[in-house]
Amino acid sequence: MERLEQKYTLRVFEDGDPYRVLIRTILSQRTRDENTDQASESLFSKYHTMEEIANARPEDLEPLIRKAGFFRVKSRRIKEVSQIIIDEFNGVVPDNIDELLTLPGVGRKTANCVLVYGFTKPAIPVDVHVHRISNRIGLVDTHNPEQTEKELEKVVPKKNWIELNDLMVQFGQTICRPISPLHEECPINDLCDYYWDMGKESS
Prior knowledge:
Blueprint: H1 2-5, H2 18-28, H3 33-46, H4 50-55, H5 58-65, H6 71-88, H7 97-100, H8 108-119, H9 128-137, H10 145-155, H11 161-174, H12 193-202
Helix pairs in contact: 2-3, 2-8, 5-6, 9-10, 9-11
């Protein structure tokens, strides 16, 4: 973790507002970060509050979030989630995973993102980068994100949970890429099972 921290810095998501973090994370599902950024900025430049989005027509939301893909489904989803939070949680985004998971379209990754980036609560959001890197370097030996989350909670000190996702995402986008990872530039290649296994195969 320390060696990663020397090169990668934590990003700020939607100014730490739990509602905006939640909506952004829903928009991020099955799309690239740059598309999520554009869709989120476009949406919140016109609709500034939960109530405004809850009261908006899906067809008015769709063009704003088109960049995020699956925009018809996502427009209905963010409107529905907004209304549920207003009706069932008095307009306050829940700050615990059990209640977050009751919201439609919110799985463990999204819920944990809200806890980390919206409430600065220790949690481990596991996306494709975290799952891939954790298995590559040998931190875990798992088959799906939920298993990875549980195993990481065992091996990563809780004080590092908040920063883990962001550091691994940046690391996975720049160095430990899905295809053609930059082994020689990796600051932790001496600790990486995948790196050493590749060396054995080529020798």
